[in-house]
Amino acid sequence: MTTTTSESEHQVRRTAGLVIEGLGVSLTGSHVDVVDDIDLVLKPGEVVGLVGESGSGKTTVGTSLLAYSRAGAEISSGKVVLEDRDVLSLPWKEVRKLRGEEIAYVPQDPASALNPSIRIGKQLVELQQLRGIGTSESRLQAARDGLTEVGLPSDDEFLRRYAHQLSGGQVQRVALAMAFLPKPKVLVLDEPTTGLDVTTQKMVLDTMAELCRTYGVSALYVTHDLAVVANIADRVAVMYAGQIAELGPRDTIFANPSHPYTRALLDSIPHLSQARALKGIPGRTPSPGRRPDGCRFNDRCAFVVDRCRTEVPALRTVAPEHEVRCHRVGEIGTWDINIGTVPDADPDRPREVILSVEGLNVFYGRKQVVHDVTFDLAKGEVVALVGESGSGKTTISRSVGGLHKEWTGSLTFEGRELARSARQRSAEDRRRMQYIFQNPYLSLNPRLTIEQIIKRPMELFGLAKGKEATDRVVELMGQVALGPQMLHYQASRLSGGERQRVAIARALAAEPDVMICDEITSALDVSVQGSIVELLEGLRLERGISMLFVTHNLALVRSIAARVEILQAGSVVESGPVATVMDTPREEYTRTLLSNSPRID
Amino acid sequence: MSAATTPGTASAGAGATGPAPESFFRKALRQKRFAFGFSLTLAIVVFAVVAPFLSPFGEKETAGPPYSPDGIFGTDYLGQDVLSRLMHGGQSILVISVLATLLGMVVGVLVGVIAAYAGGWWDEVIMRLNDVVLAFPQILLALVVLTALQDPGAWVIVVLIGISHAPRVARVSRGVALGIVSRDFVVAAEALGERRSRVIVAEVLPNMTGPLLAEAGLRLTYSIGVVASLGFLGFAADPGAANWGQMIFENRLGLQTQPWAVVAPVLVIGIFTVATNLMADGLAQASQKGD
Lengths: 601, 291
Fold this sequence. Notes:
A: 601 residues; alpha/beta; Rossmann fold; 2 domains; 6-stranded mixed beta sheet; 35% helix; B: 291 residues; mainly alpha; MetI-like fold
């Protein structure tokens, strides 16, 4: 529970904004809490970032503001007070009216928010009819104004379009316009920019922040992306395992994080400005019902003492507006942003080229998607392929890996020409180049056990058999930080991060010289991303494995790669050592990408 | 991603330390439909299997005058005991249906999965040929061949029904397989250079079991229907032997005097069809919930 000081602050602000008090959501039919003890105030015109990893309950909190809980869960306690009315205890009819009209929601997937068979203009007008806003004449004009506000064209041609005729960013901005049309008082945004390119993301975020400030709307921005929060939020609430771990003004959270979890999170994210060595958080987020006693972070915390395991910490105010849920908040010293840099990013190091790509053109049917791409990869080096969606980065990596056959050009591996598809290459070439996929939920056969999955490349390439192979599997699992007890687990029982580790172990089982990593961290939480990057860096130093690292995240490039190729529409626009390209970009496109990327520093 | 607070991911996250996942069969048994259909099917199978030991009369033994009400279900047009014939008649129909279903499933699944996995031109050719076979009504194909053959054995019926199932099964399994062959773990196996047959057997097929089991249940239902219809139309494997379909045909003239001789086989066919269908439904539901 909050201290008395924050309780009295609630009283003062109750006239405006939204006040959440002691909110709890539990699984239906049991007393297992999904989230509990949430106290939060959204002031008018303020954007509050609600940050957390998968399973932290941040989306649950977001939808609770609309008195909604997903199937299987129910709002069990607390109040959500908007202008002296408790949203949670209002009759159903009034809640319906309130949703959208006073508290609006922008979902994660914009495409699902728009009806694919109704024209954009009609949807905007219909929304007002439903709410009884304006007159039949004024509605169309209001629709146009709404579109203009979010920076979209408002001519008849645009109003006549269907959702599929818009780009992802446009759809998200239409969704934003729809949310703003009834002039809501509170806006809940659930990761509205996930899946958008940085340039589009920046546009959507700027539009949102501006509208909120202009109309005095209180916004709750739910996300896993700390970098985005650092750019748009006024205050930040960090959630862990269903509770708010730390709450404070943005600058305080990023400069002086006081909860060990917040610090660990910040230690796991890459920065644009320096080649930061990343650290992951060991273990996994406990799911509802499996959360430890005492402080919920105690099993993963570096500062844990006996008290943390028995006594539940309260949210304590350590500075004005800054609340932390930790027993040892005064004892653990201050946080140092500097956790060291990746040691080996020296651009002048001699390079021993192992793989070179020359004049690569890739086609899908008659359509050419990659144009004349040339680059090479040296031993023990990480080269990053960076670009927005549609830039051809994955296509290039798939062609190099032999998963896509329709390409021309030359691909040389240790001086030997490689065949187009993996099947045409020799077993030795296939073994020495391994591909790791973006989505670990799709890349492992859910019916096989971890042992079977990791063992297979060894059997296939005749590296080890039977007992010996099993021993190697256990050893590899140790290297990727998976316990041997998982040997006989089926892949479907693992979390995303654990699955990706299995996928890496499978690649390592073939004892490769080159690993092609296709956005391998983009489906994972930041703390998991941090530990995967840590792991890859270790492997590179230890085994001298070269990596082709495909990503859209420029900050991540800084922490992992030595060289970078910036791609736009299937061509390389700029390439070179990471430090050079990122500190002194020559091309306009690189500069735009860099300036649009959300930055923390 | 943040939608991670859905029950699916929550339980997946919890799974690592939880008990081993239930077997598919046990999961299916918790479906009321499946449990009910399964026990009914089992009862009828037992009913047929115990015929040689428990039936009051032999298969072709005369029990009394024709169309008399003696015994539980009375006698038929030749004075044979209806209950005994019903029990004896079950075996052949069950064996033929199960074998035909198995054959149809194996051929159909192979064709469908290969078409889906090969893709492109191969897929087109295989599936269009498949459509040609599919164009024949199931029973017509069997009738044409049976009329042409002098003395068709039981295996001919098995093959005919199996073959007529195959294109239907192929369509379904191709659809299921299409969703699997594009997944990254299949691509990963390709990249490692696994043999194509192993990719199909080890990577694709295990992920199709749920929908395929459901399809098998459905096909079994159809098999029973077709076998019974063929018997009714006079194309039983052994004309003198008891056969549910044939019994309906033989005794239809006595429907007014001794209705049980017709109604009893109709009832068992009906019950069995409903039971296998419920089983198929239950399996489909369980496989949807699964993973």
